[in-house]
Amino acid sequence: MNKNLHAIYVGLFFLVGVSITVLLAVDGFKYYNLPIEQRFFSSQHTILKPSGFIGHGLGIFGTLMMIFGVAIYMIRKRTPKLLNFGYLKYWLEFHIFLCTLGPILVLYHTAFKFGGLVSVSFWSMVAVVLSGVVGRFIYLQIPRTIQGQEVNINELSEISDDLTYKLKKQYNVDDSIINQIENIFSSNKYSAKSAGYNFLIVIKEYFGLKVNLAKLKKQISSKGTKGKQLKEIIKIIKSKIILNRRIGMLRSMQKLFRYWHIIHLPFAITMLVIMLVHVAVTIILGYKWIF
Ligand code: HEM
Ligand code: HEM
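Above: the input record for the complex with protoporphyrin IX containing FE. Below: its predicted structure, written as tokens.
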């Protein structure tokens, strides 16, 4: 998948997700906004209540999306022979799409009323989605090949050295600037710190990076480099700074990611088990959808 196709792939997920969320909100706004005791008298009650045609259907589709989104990713990751196409990272994006839209549909299924044992399933679902966002963030801090395999520390150091070589030889960047980058953004700065500390540093430096790059840009342009060449140099410097940080944090982020799996999975299992009990109870109570 080339860059443009990938942008369309992700853009389509975004468009479908946002459109469905907005459509359901607009359609049901009046009903969901009513106090619980007045909903019974609304003309939309028969279709939007959790056992109504739309409400019930949303619960079923949302749940199926989550089950499919988890199953397909786990199969692709653990038994690649079975699903031998597409890079793992694209499948993760598909997992994120289905497991974000699925919970949104379930949210509309509940009609924003969370009672009984099934509320444990609902809040576990919220926890798994929120932990997913954190996991995605940590995942992106661990450098990977285009196929989604982790890159080892020696290969990363070689890439960083190549970038320095390019700045020096191809773009004639001054030694004083290179030394500044190597000293201020050295990977050693991060390697001695704990995983939690590094996690906060990444967020802080996300905003600090723009300021630092602007300072370096000013210094380089004062030496006469302008236009397209200056843009390319800044792009390489940005890659190098981010790479150095990721090299320094690699071990602690890998550790944090292992801990993260220990949180994400049990929430997913809790949600699933209680949801199964909930579905069994509704079937025993005689609730039917279109079948
Ligand atoms: C993770 C998935 C699900 C969650 C978190 C969930 C949550 C809920 C909640 C909070 C309610 C409202 C309870 C109340 O009125 O106090 C509800 C009602 C209901 N759900 Fe689900 N649900 C899920 C999946 C499903 C599925 C897959 C089905 C059907 C196969 C289903 C069928 C129903 C029905 C029929 C009701 C109405 C029950 C009644 O009015 O007594 N739910 N659900
Ligand atoms: C109800 C929603 C979700 C459920 C049930 C769910 C469940 C799972 C499960 C079972 C795994 C596999 C864990 C493993 O391989 O040990 C996983 C992996 C993952 N999920 Fe989710 N997930 C959900 C939503 C999300 C969301 C919303 C995001 C991101 C925004 C996300 C990001 C991830 C990431 C980054 C991984 C790790 C991939 C890897 O290590 O290869 N998940 N999820």
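Notes for the reader.
The radius of gyration is 25 Å.
The chain has a mean pLDDT of 90.
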